[in-house]
Write a structure and sequence with these properties.
Layout: H1 2-8, H2 12-18, H3 25-35, H4 44-47, H5 61-64, H6 91-94, E1 104-107, H7 123-127, E2 130-131, E3 140-141, H8 142-148, E4 151-158, E5 161-167, E6 177-178, H9 183-196, H10 206-209, H11 223-227, E7 233-234, H12 246-253, H13 267-271, E8 275-276, H14 288-302, H15 306-315, E9 324-327, E10 340-342, H16 344-355, E11 359-360, E12 363-364, H17 368-376, H18 380-384, E13 395-397, E14 400-402, E15 410-414, E16 418-423, E17 428-434, H19 449-460
Antiparallel strand pairs: 1-9, 2-3, 4-5, 4-17, 6-10, 7-8, 9-10, 11-12, 13-14, 14-15, 15-16, 16-17
Helix pairs in contact: 1-3, 2-12, 9-14, 9-17
Length: 463
């Protein structure tokens, strides 16, 4: 049972932690039980199945009492070793407390006072907005969509001012939250920044920067192909396949190696084993290993890890209120594909930096060319080959998702509902942190993307 469940889990950050098939036999049934609630539905038919999860109100982590007390009651203790910390509904507590569970590295915010965030709240009118969810017969209110999508935090900025800010579950303004694969857009932004500054040549091969990857499938790919995930690699994230390469990647990144493990140790070591399959540049293929390869390239080109570079160039400059952090592998390497944890307001500051083409409160922190390149979008033809029929007409560039809608909106996205959604036409930055029970954005997009468009249309009518 454990093998079947682990192979179906959609989040590499979870798998690297405890989906090792080398655990002692005695622990397997416990691990299997812990995985049941985080297994994502593998196909459209399953996603349309009747709801089987506790509601947002029923699964409120504070009401459920996870890890409360000195010590907590045994029934409320969550652990890494048995996977219970990422089992829904406990997941709703853990996404705000990852540092208590996993090793990490800091992204310092600096010693100065946090930068101001002007506020002009319009909560009641935004809560009352209605929109039509995809495939639904009836409209839904904005407020109802928050609970439907297990929202932990929602913040909307319009023309640089906070017009909406709400917190739910375990998240408060002073907490940080796991952002999952939204991390990739930070990695892509740092790479685009280095390209704009002439410190990284996107036309060069990966091997020219990383001789260690010369014999791997990455060797003859260009840096641009890695940035846009159009590499041709023998790497499957098909979790129903027991031979999928994602299992070796997950085991290599697992900071808690089971006894007897003999595979690659750490993300970098695993990347050296990746084989080529197909031609680079032909199709978009969402593979987490591209982000970790790009994190390594960034470190080599800049002389700093992604955590150090993000702190120096962004986090210390935008007046962040809190330090962020990355989860790391057993060697201390930041998980550039999904390990960032940050506060809601600081993510909004980052979004505002991107919306304004690298300029933040009067200072040009990133070259404008960085964001101009992101907004160019990627190949729609390449994206169409990726198997995302629900995202028709979208593209992918610099590890950002380009909606290609009339407003030119683009987004950073992560499983369980993490989002930084930027609508340039509406002058809007929207940040959502969430703990949806299904680890696939397809589960919440129908009640999220049309909601974002509705609030953007509303804000465009405001003076």
């Amino acid at each position: 049972m454990l093998k079947s469940l682990c192979r179906r889990a959609l989040n590499p950050a979870i798998m690297m932690t405890y989906c090792s098939l080398s655990y002692p036999k005695a622990a397997r049934n416990v691990l299997a039980a812990a995985l049941v609630a985080i297994v994502a539905m593998p196909d459209a038919a399953a996603q349309n199945a009747p709801k089987k999860y506790l509601s947002a109100a029923e699964s409120d982590p504070l009401k459920m009492g996870w890890m409360q007390g000195f010590p907590p009651p045994p029934s409320k203790v969550l652990r890494v070793e048995d996977g219970s910390f990422m089992q829904f509904p406990a997941l709703r507590w853990s996404v705000v407390h990852m540092r208590q569970m996993l090793p990490s590295v800091n992204v310092p915010a600096g010693l100065g006072a946090p930068g101001p965030l002007p506020t002009a709240l319009d909560t009641e009118r935004i809560d009352a907005l209605t929109f039509q969810p995809w495939g639904a017969a009836k409209p839904m209110t904005w407020q109802a969509s928050l609970a439907e999508n297990y929202t932990d935090g929602m913040l909307i900025m319009h023309r640089g001012k906070i017009v909406y800010e709400r917190y739910f579950g375990a998240l408060t303004p002073t907490d940080v939250h796991a952002v999952m694969s939204l991390t990739k857009s930070f990695t892509g932004t740092l790479a685009a920044m280095l390209v704009a500054e002439g410190k990284l040549d996107e036309t060069r091969t990966v091997a020219s920067y990383m001789p260690e990857l010369q014999k791997s499938g990455f060797g003859d790919a260009t840096v641009r192909q890695v940035m846009d995930m159009t590499t041709g690699l023998k790497y499957s994230e098909e979790y129903a396949d027991p031979k999928a390469e994602v299992w070796q990647f997950s085991a290599a990144g697992n900071p808690f190696k089971p006894q007897g493990y003999t595979g690659p140790n750490g993300y970098y070591a695993y990347l050296e084993t990746v084989k080529k399959q197909g031609q680079h540049g032909e199709a978009f293929g969402y593979r987490t290993i591209n982000a970790d390869a790009l994190g390594w390239i960034i470190a080599r080109a800049s002389g700093q890890s992604v955590a150090e570079l993000l702190s120096e160039r962004v986090w210390r400059k935008i007046g962040a209120e809190q330090a962020a952090f990355y989860q790391v592998d057993g060697l201390g390497t930041p998980f550039a594909g999904g390990g960032l944890n940050a506060g809601l307001r600081d993510l909004a500051r980052f979004g505002e930096l991107i919306r304004n083409e690298g300029r933040y409160q009067g200072q040009q922190l990133l070259p404008a060319a960085t964001v101009q390149d992101i907004r160019k979008g990627g190949s729609k033809a390449a994206f169409a080959k990726s198997g995302h029929p629900e995202l028709k007409g979208w593209s992918y560039r610099d590890m950002w998702w380009m909606t290609e809608n009339a407003h030119g909106a683009f987004a950073a996205r992560g499983v369980y509902g993490q989002t930084i959604y930027i609508d340039p036409a509406a002058e809007m930055v929207l940040v959502r942190l969430a703990s949806h029970p299904v680890a696939a954005n397809a589960a919440n997009d129908p009640t999220s993307l049309p909601a974002y468009e509705a609030v953007a249309e509303y804000l465009m009518k405001q003076k």
